[in-house]
Amino acid sequence: MSETTQRPPAAASPPGAPGTGNGAWAAVRRGLGSFGRQREATVFVVAVALLLYFSIRYPSTFVSSANAINLLSENAAPIAIIAIGEVLLLICGQIDLSVGFVYTFAPFVMYFAITYYHVPALLAIILALLTGLVVGWVNGFITVTLGVPSFITTLGTGFVLEGLVLTTSHAEPVGIPPSSAGIGHWIGSAPWSQFIWAVILVAIFHVVLTRTRWGLYTISTGGNKLGAHEAGIRVGRITYGNFMICGVLGAFVGLQTAFYTNTIDPSAGGYTPMFYAVTAAVIGGTAMLGGSGTILGAFLGAIVLSTLIDGLDIAGVSANPLPIIFGAAILVAMIVNVRLARLRGEGRSL
Amino acid sequence: MTAATPQDQAAAGDVLRAEHISKRFGAVTALVDVNIHLARGEVLALLGDNGAGKSTLLKILCGFQLPDSGRILLNGEEVTFKSVDHARSLGVDVVYQDLALINELTVYHNMFLNREIVRWPLLKNRSMRRLARQRLDEMGIGLKSVDVPVARLSGGQRQAIAIARSMYSDAKILLLDEPLAAMGAKEAAIILDLIREQKQKGDISMIIIAHNYGQVLEIADRVNLLQHGEITFDKPARDTSVQELNDIVIAEYRRALEERHGAA
Predict the structure, then answer these.
(1) Domain for residue A4, yes or no?
(2) Structural domain contains residue A268
(3) Residue B79 falls in which region: left (phi positive, over 0), alpha (psi -120 to 50) or beta
(4) Of B58, B83, B94, B102, which to mutate for an interface test with A (greatest number of A Cβ within 10 Å)?
(5) What gap in Å lies between CA A292 and CA A93, rounded to an integer?
(6) Contact with chain A for residue B123, Cβ under 8 A
(7) In CATH, what number does B6-104+149-261 get?
(8) Residues of chain B below pLDDT 70
(9) Is A10 part of a structural domain of the chain?
(10) Interface confidence (ipTM) of the complex
């Protein structure tokens, strides 16, 4: 709107006059300005800078299709997919600490169904995903209906799931049931399949968050729960739903990793992927306060994290200081977010 | 229902009547046998001191709370509001002073909250943006852009949007809780104009809770004063004045002071 009022003077300046240079420069600045206003801008710049740095520094090892698969598909995709669920919950003003244990448990559900109950592979995979749905529902029930803070709820359900995995598996890894290998190819074992799923899911949920009622109500629930309720939005149902989405995505990533690594491992998953996902969400521009967040940002955040993991490994840096970098990244991202939110609040021009 | 009494016939023109409403909270008596009525297209100002029971009465009228006794008639028929949603579905909407807007959402999303225009599964943002713009312009609410989050707007602009939203809902009866609270003269003027315009259209009836009677007398048709849970004053706005209302309130303060100091 305001841009249109600025345009006529620029267009009116005679061609070749010094004014045209200014006009073009103004257009670039305007473009940069609107880009800078996007919440994903910072993390996008960081992701590109890191990728460029490692590509230039280690052209032979970093820039290879094997490493690209390793970075984007094996490392970034699982973080990004779980981060979708966490972003939706963080916007709702909730968090899911249990999702990493859904990740661990879901492939075992598939394994038990196929091995002990002779369930067809596709049905077993659906059962595994349903497990995530049920865990999400239980998290929703305890948080929304019984009124326990989600941090505690999901801490509890996470432990329960961990115990279920260890008890039922006797803490031993098992192989992928042969009947499921064919579908597994599509889910996670084919090269790039994890990344392609991540891109598809990120695209879908980005649209859900920004262009549908569900997204609008998710933001409303976290932004002003009472106000949303007064407007007739069923905030409980929205929260339940997002817990269930997060659970299913966790189960899906668990299956992907099982197929990719060709083993169902009781020590896979756990807190690490969950915390990586929350980290990706936070450095991508999702506040922990509820009411705002971006799935695209979380996707870029996942790429930043996995570029650091992968790049520093290639650089021969020990993995030991990596958590220091992640910790600093979280803190810097949050400080920038808080400051930017304050600046944005002060005026449109920023 | 029962045989028509003269009172019922008098009520025929009223869109909303609350009769013999009482409400207690433990030892505190909030409302005592309150009778209130609202004619079609009327703007009723409900005035009273802090703690006089204005908010309690409003919460009963909007379905947030049930009275201990008494009944509510909507267009002459007795109703029991089970919830705010239920009352809203019957055309009674409330605009709270603690605004029900979502700070993080844009002006147009707020205006269409829970009444979005959708081509499933996607929101028709462009249509909503255009309509929001058009409606706000019609109402004379000057906003530079409907694309900004409402967090960036002033208190008056936010209140205006909350009221505009209710006016464009199916509400026939609007209950406004302190719509002018904490507002400068310029911002209050926006709201007063908004209410005046709706009044001229004549299809919405309103109860406005307010502290500042100078402002409300401008737009109200009738004034009710609530003191210690009782309606003590009911006059057409043109038959009263700020002076008269002031005197009543000052007398009340004087009485309270005397009681406090035990003066005879």
Answers:
(1) no
(2) yes
(3) beta
(4) B102
(5) 9
(6) yes
(7) 3.40.50.300
(8) 1-12, 97-99, 182, 263-264
(9) no
(10) 0.83
